[in-house]
């Protein structure tokens, strides 16, 4: 019978689609990377998805975040994402958390109930905590490395964290994970050198903040606000989604002309 996943089934087959429908994936960080990951997973047939982010849509998110529009500015990202996801597939089980993931909030999550975890967080300490918790219960996880201040969407690749080069965030993660005894971590990263943002008084978030009222963690709290494009974070998010679909279904496409 024809349904919204018929074209995907033509690629993967019924057994693989059943695995996707039975899977539960947690996406930590519903921004430029995590938003595209979440939507792509739902369009691929994942049956349950958890969305974790305490942020609200900001005007400056519109250039790159799939859930950000003029109409959604000021709304919680997880609420906007849930509404759109249910428009795509009303049968998906969507669980939302208006939570900033950190060591202080980590106990709110049972990582053993997830089939896969997405790390699309931009805070190093939170990324490390997330990876540690996933490793403790042997739940697969994939992490996004630095996507800000980059323009070459074709430069991103999938690798183990200990085989990465150039990326400043990956370097920090390698060092800290080694200290913690974490021996492997699948990541999406780029060897492209980050571009220095052209920050000035007129375009600086520090002098012209437009964050919605009630925003807890404003960009002004950062040491530096990264630049971004519409096409780099989206590519990273789609690569992550593709890796998850591949790992859950066990389907690589090899030997089939792919």
Verbal overview:
- The chain has 258 residues and is of the alpha/beta class.
- It has a single domain (6-249), classed as NAD(P)-binding Rossmann-like Domain (Rossmann fold), CATH 3.40.50.720.
- 33% of the residues lie in helices and 13% in strands.
- The protein is built from seven helices and seven strands, in the order ααβαβαββαββαβα.
- The protein has a seven-stranded mixed sheet, with helices on both faces.
- Helix 3 (32-44) links the parallel strand 1 (24-28) and strand 2 (48-52).
- Helix 3 runs parallel beside helix 7 (232-249) and helix 5 packs across helix 6.
Give the overall shape, derived from the CA principal axes. globular
Distance, first to last CA: 26 Å
Assembly context of the chains: single chain
Over the alpha carbons, how many angstroms does the gyration radius reach?
A: 18 Å
Any idea of the CATH class? Alpha Beta
Strand content: 5-15%
Largest sheet: 7 strands, mixed
Order of helices and strands: HHEHEHEEHEEHEH
Q: Approximately how much helix is present in the residues?
A: 25-40%
């Amino acid at each position: 019978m024809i349904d919204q996943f018929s074209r995907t089934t033509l690629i993967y087959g019924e057994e693989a689609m059943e695995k996707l429908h039975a899977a539960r994936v947690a996406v930590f960080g519903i921004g430029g990377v995590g938003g595209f990951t979440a939507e792509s997973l739902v369009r691929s047939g994942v049956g349950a998805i958890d969305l974790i982010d305490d942020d609200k849509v900001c005007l400056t998110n519109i250039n790159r975040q799939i859930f950000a529009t003029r109409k959604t500015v000021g709304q919680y990202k997880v609420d906007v994402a849930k509404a759109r996801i249910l428009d795509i597939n009303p049968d998906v089980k969507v669980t939302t958390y208006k939570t900033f993931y950190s060591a202080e909030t980590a106990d709110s999550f049972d990582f053993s109930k997830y089939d896969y975890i997405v790390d699309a967080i931009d805070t190093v300490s939170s990324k490390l905590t997330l990876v540690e918790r996933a490793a403790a219960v042997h739940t697969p996880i994939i992490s996004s490395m630095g996507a800000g201040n980059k323009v070459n969407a074709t430069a991103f690749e999938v690798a183990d964290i200990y085989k990465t080069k150039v990326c400043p965030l990956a370097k920090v993660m390698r060092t800290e994970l080694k200290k913690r005894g974490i021996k492997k971590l699948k990541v999406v990263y780029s060897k492209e050198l980050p571009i220095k943002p052209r920050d000035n008084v007129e375009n600086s978030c520090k002098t012209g903040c437009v964050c919605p009222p009630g925003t807890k963690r404003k960009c002004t709290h950062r040491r530096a606000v990264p630049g971004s494009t519409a096409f780099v974070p989206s590519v990273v998010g789609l690569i992550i989604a593709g890796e998850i679909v591949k790992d859950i279904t066990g389907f690589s496409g090899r030997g089939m002309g792919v």
